[in-house]
Amino acid sequence: MAKRIQFSQTGGPDVLEYADMTAEEPKAGEVRVRNHAVGLNFIDIYFRTGLYPAPGLPSGLGTEGAGIVDAVGEGVTHLKEGDRVAYAQGPLGAYAELYVLPAEKAVKLPDAIEFETAAACMLKGLTVQYLLRQTYRLPKGETILFHAAAGGVGSIACQWAKALGVKLIGTVSSPEKAELAIKNGAWATIDYTKENVVERVRELTKGDMVPVVYDSVGKDTWETSLDCLQKRGLMVSFGNASGPVENVNIGILNQKGALYVTRPSLNGYADTRKRLETMSNELFEMLESGKIKVDIAQRYPLEKAGEAQEALASRKTTGSTVLVPSMQQDTQATQDAGRSQDVQAPAEEAPAAQDAGTSQDHASKDSQDQDPRA
Ligand SMILES: NC(=O)c1ccc[n+]([C@@H]2O[C@H](COP(=O)([O-])OP(=O)(O)OC[C@H]3O[C@@H](n4cnc5c(N)ncnc54)[C@H](OP(=O)(O)O)[C@@H]3O)[C@@H](O)[C@H]2O)c1
Do 162 and 179 belong together in one domain? Predict the structure, then answer.
């Protein structure tokens, strides 16, 4: 019987259960994917803890992965059985061996891109695509501040910024993370555990400060980030790793220099099939050209999803983490024999408003209609 991760109550990692699942047949407009690898994202933690409510309990978890289409619902024309696909915006339930999602949310994966790479970067890489290429169109030579530069999203952002000729100043919490961010193309790093972020930004920019800050940390960094901006600069608040930004008096934007703020999500950008394809193609080109290499620094068997989430939440991870379903572990181990990463180590818009798992009322409605966050 196929397996999935589910939770029946919100809480710590121990609420995650590794359970049997009934493999649903895809309905009209849906496909079923046999997952080869599943992506781990901070947003999965938000759903598990209840910061973002799941549509019902018990619920599946996860929205990102890659695998092979093994069943196709009526009316689906762009995918067929046997196609290699990747996705980042499915309904809750990607932490599973078999996963049903709306076909329009899956894209064909070029042969050159491995399943694990795709699972490790669809959500994170498409997020970087919109952040650096759409939310603020960065000209060559611009200097930006990007928090959590050694994390999953951050590692891709460092490489993409470098490829654009943009000078990325990345915040990190340790010398090891600083080294990694620089290796990935960050222009400079700030270890916020030892340095004053605002003063360092002032120093690095010779007093100019930055036109845009990308902040996924949330509550803890909100005001610091605003203080790093030039007049009329843009604050891009795209995550809540330390908790959500709440109770903001909008007047602070005036006090700190006529600033702009946006709170974007992937689902706000990849909101049509055409836009998803355009963004995915750009990401795939960056991967195929070698301008971006996805660092899968942690791999866990699917059943250890709780451990994986704990490592992510406690800042122990770097780069991306993937979960490998048990059906794939043997194959994967063989494929990975020549690669350097550990099989298991530790040393995020939005998704899904419905559960893709075994529930009888599984709906095919696009999740982002119901939950615009990521
Ligand atoms: N809006 C969107 O479209 C979207 C899409 C994807 C992801 N995201 C957001 O992007 C962020 C990064 O996601 P990710 O999956 O790639 O995670 P990640 O960056 O690999 O991990 C989070 C990192 O945040 C830093 N951090 C700072 N304060 C923290 C705290 N109090 N608790 C935990 N971590 C803290 C840590 O790096 P240091 O130790 O270096 O500080 C940690 O490693 C998340 O906030 C996620 O929600 C948003």
Answer: yes
